[in-house]
Amino acid sequence: MIVAVVLIFVRPGASQGDDSGAAPESTRSSAPATPDATTIPTEPVAVDGDPCSPEQITVEAVTDKTSYNAGEQPQLSVTITNTGTNICVLNAGTKAQAFTVTSGTEVYWTSTDCQVDAIDAEVSLAPGTPISSSAPIVWDRTRSAPDTCEGPREAVPAGGASYHLTVSVDGFASAETKQFQLY
What we know:
Blueprint: H1 2-9, E1 50-51, E2 57-63, E3 67-68, E4 75-82, E5 88-91, E6 97-103, E7 106-110, E8 122-125, E9 131-132, E10 137-138, E11 161-169, E12 172-173, E13 178-182
Parallel strand pairs: 1-5, 3-13
Antiparallel strand pairs: 2-4, 4-9, 4-10, 5-8, 6-7, 6-11, 11-12, 11-13
């Protein structure tokens, strides 16, 4: 305890009669040192051809109508927009797409359940230029599951039932669902 008190009042290394004019440590200027340019963290700059990042991609679920009469099959597609400033690349092939139809909390149909001949298709997305499905997926209004690919499948409820479509492409999901009705 005595040592601590002595160290507070007497600077180690300074003599009692030191008249060097040095200011006490507590009053010395504490201006920050100028950092070396190599130590300043910088954000990576996006360049054309980089993989797309979540903050620059908007995925929109699309249907050809908002309501379908008995016997009409919904045509499902997707629109992808690059909202960034550089051309970015993602896999927009059918292997990287997933269309899901829900009602309430129940999943009725998923495009990947019985998918055949799925392909990868790397595309370059120019900023501000939306791209859409070249051909829509036609949903036959039946339930799907991986074990229902062979044979007949159960029809989903109609009579004005409301459904929601969500889409993801290469891990980027639609922020909103597309609502439609089946009669």
